[in-house]
Structures are given as C-alpha cells and as structure tokens.
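User: quick one, fold this
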Amino acid sequence: MSIEIKQDAVAGFDKELLMNVEGYLAKPVTVSKDTIEDLAPDADGHYVIPQGTLLVGQGGSLFDDPMQLAVKATATQKQATVTVNSAFTVTAKTAGDLAYTIKLVAGTSSSPKVAFAAKTLTVTLGVNKSGAIKTTYEDVVKLINDDTVANSYVVAKLVDGFDGSTVAAATSADAVTAGGAAETVDKVDGILYHSVCVDNGEQPATMVFAGYVNVDAMPVEPSDAVKAALPHIKFGRID
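Assistant:
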C-alpha cells in the first residue's frame, strides 16, 4: 500500500527512486532554498534540491511537527589524514580509521610516477641528469589526485601557505593516515522523493519514510549510519 502525494517532478533530474512503487509510505513536507545550506544554482540558474536528499525537521522530527521546514539531514564523518614533510596532506576519501602509508622516494628517471597497492601510496620522484630530485610538491599533489587508482582512495592537498614550487624530498619515515572515525548521523526522517525547484521560495515536497529505495537515484550512497537511522527503508539497486 502506498500514500500518493501530488508533486511535479523536475524534468531532466529524476531517476527511479523507488524499487517498488506499490509498497512505500510518504508524507508531505515543505522545502526551500534554506533546506540545503549554500544551495548553488545549476547551469540554467535554477535552485534545485536533488531527489534522494536526506531530510529532517528544522527544529526536530517532521513527524512531531509536520508544519516546520524540512532541511537536509547532515551526516558527520571524519576521514583519516596525515601531513607529509610539512608540505601536503593526504586524506582518505572514506570515513573511518583507515591506515594508508605514504612514501616519497627518489627515482632514477626524469619522469615521476605514482603506485598504489596494499594500502601503500608510493610517489617516485623525478630526478635530473645529476640525480637530484626535480619534482615539486605541487607536482606530487597533482600526481596523486590525477592517478585514477590512488584518487579512488585518497585526496592530496598542499598545506595552506606552503609554497608548492618547493622541490620535494624523499620521506625519511613512512607517513600513515590516522584519526578517522565512522560516519554518524543524529537524525533523519526520510528521503526526498522528487527533485524540487525552489526558485520561488517555499515549495511542497514528498518525503519517503518507508519502502524500497534505489541508491543509484540518490546524490550520495547512504552509509551504514544513515541506513540505521532509517530502519523502515530498504536500500538496493534496480540492476
């Protein structure tokens, strides 16, 4: 059994959110530009809240006070990170206390390269004809972020204020990411059924709070913490 609530989808945005349209529960809510902090306009200048956005009441549960504005529920995550040679940071993309080892080593070629295997990221620095390292820290950061394998796991960034043109040095000891924690979420009431354009202020919307949801129609695949906060929703994929 489902509860149908009238809402026009935004053309060109929506995918099939529900895996079973005959077995879901939803309730009407109100959204606006304030639903998502710093909501940016799309390429056409429209402010659109994407389908699948996690929702909660602005002042508490939408089930306790359905007249309040629905806002984006925030999940808190802490990624493991490490600072290498006081020059740049390497941060895990996935939340959790993940230990990735970072090494900078002098190579024998003028071309630097990156290798990522067994949770170890090795950057081989390029050298000149005399064997002196010529790869800069700016080069190192770009190499890591442009590598399709390494960039699946970590992201690199120069330390604020550090001169990226400084020639890199081989690490004297392994640098290992640490300090991460599993994602947590305080409260989630449901999931926005259709994308909503909020150019003209507050708009009615539909929030699904029970049923079978296709994670591929959500902006971000839900974490274990989000799934635990929405026990009446089962997440899966259509194919």
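User: anything notable?
Assistant: The chain has two domains: 25-74+186-236, 77-182.
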